[in-house]
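Anyone have tokens for DSD1 dehydratase? Sequence:
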Amino acid sequence: EGAELATGGSRRGIVVSTLAEAHFFAAGGFDDILYAFPVPRWRLAECSELAQRLQQFQVLLDSPQGLEMLLQNPLPGGKRWLVWLKLDCGNARAGIRPTDPEALALARAIAQGSPELVTLVGVYAHCGNTYGCRDIPAIQAIARDTTAAVLEFVTS
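Reply: yep, here.
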């Protein structure tokens, strides 16, 4: 019910952190889901099934190896992998640092490589480093730093 309220009844544009959540929401009629963790090889078949079943099932990438894995495992029926480049703006959990020279090269490889197989949707950053914050100003500082890092990256 909460997700339906949050999406204004559209049942679109939700983010999940596990594939169990993706299956739960898909079974509930949600057809636009972002799996907010770089796709591990051992979850590729499950992600492929969701991508084929839903109107939009989006995934994160944070490495050239992840891109190569998707390119080597195209979706059938004219569907494409819809990917977001996962940036690590201080959380140190997953993603590529936006200041890493490889980050821009990876974004270009996704965007210009084989768009009929893998399409770059955007960049994604998660402020998980706010979890340890003790007050609102600390959270706001992390949000400002993350926003600045993402904006600098996308305008490079």
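The chain is about 40% helix and 20% strand.
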